[in-house]
Amino acid sequence: MEIALIKLLLAHVLGDFFLQPDQWVVEKEKIKLKSDKLYWHVALHIVLVFIVFFSFDVWKQALIIGVTHYLIDAAKLQFQKTNTKRVWFFADQLMHIVVIVACWLGFSENAKIDFSFVQNTKVWLYVFGALLLTSPTAIVIKVLINRFIPSKGSISLQNAGKFIGILERLLIYIFVLTNHLEAVGFLLAAKSIFRFGDLKEGNELKLTEYVLIGTLLSFGIAVAVSLGITSINV
Questions:
Q1: Contact present, 103 and 61 (Cβ < 8 Å)
Q2: What is the pLDDT of residues 34-85, one digit of tens each?
Q3: Region of residue 203 (left: phi > 0; alpha: psi -120 to 50; beta: else)
Q4: CB 121 within 8 A of CB 234
Q5: H or E segment to which residue 215 belongs
Q6: Considering the entire predicted model, what is its pTM?
Q7: Are 137 and 131 in contact (CB under 8 A)?
Q8: Which among 118, 131, 145, 210 has the fewest CB atoms less than 10 Å away?
Q9: What Å distances lie between residue 84 and 15, 34, 76, 157, 206, CA to CA?
């Protein structure tokens, strides 16, 4: 990746996450375009572009990033609702990154995005393995252990178990692909420590057995799929 793109991304991360106080965010969401913090925030992004390049020759990039940053943030402040904040956060960041990449491609002579990886068989194989370990495996495990679900009122977050399982399987997938099998054992130990307190408090054998069945199935399928993917010669 060219250093110019890294510098532009660094300036964005600094401006949006490190140098923007929580008070600014609160005020902007409260009074929207009337907040002077919005304009200070945009000005900060412009200044940061000059700082990371240590040159005024990038004034065009700085100006484009500043203007588009204002327009994107203004749209977010105007249209986001309480129940759409998460969506707008990711949409906002994605649009900023698109602008940054466009600036890089437009003003850097050697800037070029290489899409040849799309034709790489391993890329498609790894994507397939990762997708297989998310919802499909969650559904398989749910079907397999459905008969063992303890008849007790739920006290956990909705779908929490499903997403915990997806995350742990993806982590195992990454660990196996990068040949860090010791990390799989660490993950299992860490989960066991957290689960031990819950099971101890619950003091119920059926719940303990149910959790163990689900955990071992999740880990077993994740390891099997990961080893299967790595064993395919492409």
A1: yes
A2: 999 999 999 999 999 999 999 999 999 999 999 999 999 999 999 999 899 9
A3: left
A4: yes
A5: helix 205-231
A6: 0.68
A7: no
A8: 118
A9: 23, 21, 10, 20, 39
